[in-house]
Amino acid sequence: MWKKIIKSYDYSLIAAFILLCLFGLMMVYSASSVTAVQRYEVASDYFYNKQKIHIMIASFFFFIAAAFPYKAYKNSKFLFIMIAGIVGLLCILAFFGTISNNARSWIRLGGFNLQPSEFAKLVIIIYMSAIYAKKQNYINSFNKGVIPPIILLVFLCMLIAAEPDFGTAFIIFVIGCTIIISSGMKFKSMWKLVLLGMMAALILSPLILLKKDQIFTEEKMSRITGYLEPFEYQEGDGYHLVNSYLAIGSGGVIGRGLGQGIQKLGYLPEPHTDFIMAVIAEELGVLGVLIVIGGLSFIVLKGIYTSIKCSDPFGSMMAVGISSMIAIQSLINLGGVTGLIPITGVTLPFISYGGSSLILLSVSLGVLVNISMFVKYENLYKK
Fold first, then answer.
1. How many C-beta atoms lie closer than 10 Å to residue 288's C-beta?
2. Average model confidence (pLDDT) for the chain?
3. What's CA 370's distance to the chain center, in Å?
4. What stretches pass through the bilayer (predicted)?
């Protein structure tokens, strides 16, 4: 039996995970070495060494998640503990959270910063997939089948938006929407949800206007002006985007060479996190960009394929949720770096520096690998 299970694993997904993490580690060192010395006054390999630790921790949890049967996540007690835990952590942030980039979204533990809102992404994927899988017989009953999971989705998004972290709140909301679309719910029920959302927006609009100075802060509005007219405000709000353009444009087809980038030398504000793709484009050219986009696209398409092949609604919806999470986060990061959308501060999956995001994505991908294994095992040995 164990030999059959081992043969059923999708080793191409595992290889994609390992290669993206190693490629990201290489680029974190290249992108952060000067910033570490000039801006943070630490050793040039400071962020590289911390990212190595992040990858080791993330890899441990990835293989645990890949080996752990995904169907166990549907257990009611596990769901309750998971929801209570993440809600508790998000509430604790209101009093004890560490402020970074004007958001109280971090908890400091043993020298490491933990961002609970990152883990809320996987929590909402597991919870909504489990609940809608259990409600398949009455999935179109608006009161019993549709509304209950959405209440938690909206509540979590509101807690995260209050930090304020609108980027993560938006990602979680869209992930929830993709699970709803894939749940088997009829379009009639979905249209009811859209109308309900529009009514809620109208009801909340006076509160938004009342709190507009707190919601639409000067920093947030600067991202909009920098996005719309980057060259007009290149010494101010458009500075980040203009330097991202310069990095991407100067890289050309073959790039300047690994470690030879110029924009990371104090011009790009966060070369090892938000703007790491700009550094990749400058140093490795089109080939480097294709490696990253190709690897991420492969994972997303594999996830969608797994969802289609999975006969279990719970596994199918989880595969959709995990794939959409990676795709949405990648698109938002790449859109910000290339000026297609305003800069949001969302990191590039598996590539950017950061512990919370990498661990969350690794666990999620491990779950996807486990779902893929069960699908292949059932197709090969249970026919």
1. 21
2. 83
3. 19
4. 52-71, 78-99, 119-134, 146-162, 168-186, 193-210, 275-301, 313-332, 352-375
Structural domain span for residue 158: 2-185+217-381
Q: How many domains, in total, are found in the chain?
A: 1
61 occurs within a structural domain: yes
Specify if 208 maps to a domain.
no
Q: Write down the pLDDT at residue 111.
A: 59
Q: Tell me, what's the pLDDT at 315?
A: 93
User: First-to-last CA distance in the chain?
Assistant: 15
Cα separation, 261 vs 245, whole angstroms: 13
Mind spelling out the 3-state secondary structure of the chain?
CHHHHHHHCCHHHHHHHHHHHHHHHHHHHHHHHHHHHHCCCCCCCHHHHHHHHHHHHHHHHHHHHHHCCHHHHHCHHHHHHHHHHHHHHHHHHHHHCEEECCEEEEEEECCEEECHHHHHHHHHHHHHHHHHHHCHHHCCCHHHHHHHHHHHHHHHHHHHHCCCCHHHHHHHHHHHHHHHHCCCCCHHHHHHHHHHHHHHHHHHHHHHHHCHHHHCCHHHHHHHHHHHCCCCCCCCCCHHHHHHHHHHHHHCCCCCCCCCCCCCCCCCCCCCCCCHHHHHHHHHHHHHHHHHHHHHHHHHHHHHHHHHHCCCHHHHHHHHHHHHHHHHHHHHHHHHHHCCCCCCCCCCCCCCCCHHHHHHHHHHHHHHHHHHHHHHHHHHHCC
Q: Do 70 and 367 form a contact (C-beta atoms < 8 A)?
A: yes
119-128, 163-172, 314-323: the lowest-pLDDT one? 163-172
- The reply to whether 194 falls in a domain is no
For 196-218, the pLDDT digits (tens) are: 667 666 666 666 665 555 556 66
Residue whose C-alpha is closest to residue 175's, from 160, 191, 164: 160
CB 91 within 8 A of CB 101: no
The structure tokens listed for 382 are 């249970």
Q: What is the pLDDT of residue 200?
A: 65
Inside any domain, residue 238:
yes
pTM over 0.85: yes
Give the Cα separation of 247 and 241 in Å (integer). 10
